[in-house]
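Um, can you check?
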Amino acid sequence: MSIVKFEIKNSISSTKNTNINNNTINLKMIEKKFIFFSKLELTSILNLYSKQVSKGYWKDYALDSAIDNAIFSIYKHSLDKPMYQIIKISQKGFRNKPSFYIKKSEEVISKSNSLFTILSFFEKKLSIKKLRNH
C-alpha cells in the first residue's frame, strides 16, 4: 500500500494583491469603453417588445454590447436569426451623440439620431394592421 500526500496551496495568499488590483482596474477600464442602452431607452424598447409579445408577433430577445455599439435583437422563434435589430452606435464621450438603426436581416430599414423616431416605425406598422382588421 502506498501513501499519497496532497499539499494544499493557498493560491489567493500566494498571489500579490497588486496583481489582483491591476486586473480589476483593467476590467473596469474595458467596461467603461462599452456602449449600453440607457434606462430610458431600454424601458421604451421593452414597452414596445411587451406589446408585440402580447399580440404574438415576437417571442424572444437578446442584448449585446460592444465597444462601439449596443444591439437589441428581436426573434420570432428562439432558434432563428433575429427578425429585427435595434442598434445604438456611438463613440464613448460627452460630445458624441448616438445614432440608432433598425436592421431587418442585413438591410437597414430606418435610421435616426433619436430612438423614439426609430420606434415609431413599429407603432405605424401596428396601427396599419389595426385598421385592416376592423
Strands lie at 60-65, 69-75, 84-89, 99-104, 107-112. The helical segments are 11-14, 17-33, 39-55, 115-133. Residues 33-133 form one domain.
